[in-house]
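INFO batch 0412 | record 1 of 1 | parsing
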Amino acid sequence: MRTFSINERLIKAKDIDYNMICDFEEAGVSIEQIQAKPMSALRLYISFCMDATSEKAGKEIGEHLMKGGTLEEVFDIFKTAMEESSFFQAISKEKEEETPEATSKEGKGKV
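INFO prediction complete | emitting tokens
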């Protein structure tokens, strides 16, 4: 069981599954946007782990940062949760199969 601390509150990290990704999309952060919107994605992840609204999570994160805390631990846990997510693994495998590598005589292996 992974945990992280925000504002001296111990929070249990949750696995990322299909329902969580749907909730992310409903909140305006699609799978493709997670890297482009890391702070929004992280706030959503923390809010799901806290069982709180994203606004409540944002306030807690803000207070945590103002007190000198960092989000490094949570980023690492979020990254690991995405990497270990069977849902993300299936989606990644599907995208790899849909995008065959382009090759030619002159640029073999280049896309």
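INFO post-check: The mean pLDDT is 84.
INFO record closed
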